[in-house]
Amino acid sequence: MYASGFGMRSHGSRLVFLLVWPCAAATLTFHVAGDDPGGWPAILSSIGLQNATVKGDIEVIPAGAGSAETAWTQRVEHGTILILEGASPLAASFGFRATTQHISVQSVEDLRAPQLRIIWEKPVEVPVFEVSVVGSPNAARIFTRERHEKAPLVAGFRRGSGAVLWVAAPPGPHGYDHFPYLPQALADLGLTAPFRSARLWAFFDSSYRARVDLDYFAPRWRQAGIAALHVAAWHYWEPDPQADEYLRRLIDACHRNAIQVYAWVELPHVSERFWEQHPEWREKTALLQDAQLDWRKLMNLTNRAASADSLTVSTGTASIWPSCTSNRSKVTTILPASHP
Fold first, then answer.
1. Is 146 in contact with 178 (CB distance < 8 Å)?
2. HSE (CB half, 13 Å, CA atoms) of 193?
3. What angle do CA 168, 172, 177 make, to 5 degrees?
4. Which homologous superfamily does the CATH classification assign to the domain defined by 2-20+197-334?
5. What angle do CA 132, 104, 184 make, to 5 degrees?
6. Quick count: other Cβ atoms within 10 Å of Cβ 106?
7. Is domain 29-188 classified as CATH 3.40.50.880?
8. Considering the entire predicted model, what is its pTM?
9. Regarding beta strands 118-131 and 96-110, do their DSSP bridges make them parallel or antiparallel, or are they unpaired?
10. Average pLDDT for consecutive 10-residue bins of the chain (340 residues)?
11. d(Cα 62, Cα 157) in Å, to the nearest integer?
12. Listed residue (337, 307, 314, 194) closest to 263, CA to CA
């Protein structure tokens, strides 16, 4: 089966999930104290949690919101995940104490992905917090910090069956504005999202994984719920012994782990080699320049000679795609109905 995408290639990631079929699981809830929940409902509902009116499995105390609860330590020990925002006596009681020093935060470093440049749209002034370190009763793990001063911005720890997550500033109105990895931090603190799928589809571009052990990755993909892999087919359009052997190993490794493999095409981008060998068939932009749009190099496949040659080339590698061979003729749908 062929799938035609629309610029779906991601230069920054290796696998792009295409479709999720959630499975039934136990319902987990969250509750946000106060009258202004901010971006917390967007964050928590995105991972399958339901909003509760009174108490939830996850309790969020935004900055400035009061709470009549007095037994937070016991609730955390018995399984509640408590999220604290900013400075408060409750945050201080769990080891997150504001100092008199303040900093302006705009550039953020998440320790999960320190090379990722996270820059807030507007700077936010926050106190510098003291966070209890390893060896103290509330030994916290720092997840996010200000990039230059290294002041902690997101931290947390487990206690009993529950956990405490603290953030120095609100997450922003959309939930992802300031701390895009908050769901991962919650997972590190023991939260299991209340959904799982064993039928995920993912996009795979081998140019990012040319030297990996496929027998190592394939079972881990299946364990993560991936049931079908859509492989960037433009790397295998023309016969090439080394590339063809990699593709065979990829398909075999996936099939051994019950993962279907499909060819993903981005017509009228055919392949790098096809572009280099046939400058006469290149599409043109409005400025009459060759139509190279980012990584896509567009060919004029309404030209009968170009279309025929591209199909002739692809037929040479058709046997490598045992689950796709019978559908290769679908590529001919690139020709308009009026074409003679």
1. no
2. 18
3. 100
4. Glycosidases (3.20.20.80)
5. 55
6. 15
7. yes
8. 0.59
9. antiparallel
10. 37 43 62 92 90 90 83 92 94 93 96 91 94 66 94 94 95 92 93 81 87 91 92 90 91 94 91 94 94 92 91 64 42 32
11. 18
12. 314
What six digits make up the tokens of 21? 């079929």
The pair of structure tokens assigned to 319 is 């046997």
d(CA 6, CA 232): 13
Exposure b/e, 230-262, CB count within 10 A at least 16 = b: bbbbbbbbbeeeebbebbeebbebbeebebbbb
Q: Cα-Cα-Cα-Cα dihedral of 195, 257, 318, 326, to 10°?
A: -60
How are beta strands 58-61 and 81-85 bridged, if at all? parallel
Distance CA 78, CA 69 (A): 15
Would you state the pLDDT for residue 318? 62
The pLDDT, as a whole number, for residue 197 is 80
- The residues near 226 (Cβ < 8 Å, ≥ 6 apart) are 15, 200, 201, 202, 259
Strand order in the sheet with 226-232: 2-4, 260-265, 226-232, 200-204, 15-19
pLDDT given for residue 207 in this prediction:
86
Q: What is the DSSP letter of 23?
A: P
- Which residues of the chain are in CATH 3.20.20.80 domains? 2-20+197-334
Under DSSP, the state recorded for 286 is T
Instruction: Judge contact between 51 and 73, C-beta under 8 A.
Output: no
3-class SS at 247? helix
CB 194 within 8 A of CB 28: yes
| CATH 3.40.50.880 domain position(s) in the chain | 29-188
Sign of the Cα pseudo-torsion (269, 238, 337, 263, in order): negative
Task: Give the integer Cα–Cα distance in Å for 257 and 97.
Answer: 49
- Are 163 and 192 spatial neighbours (Cβ–Cβ below 8 Å)? no
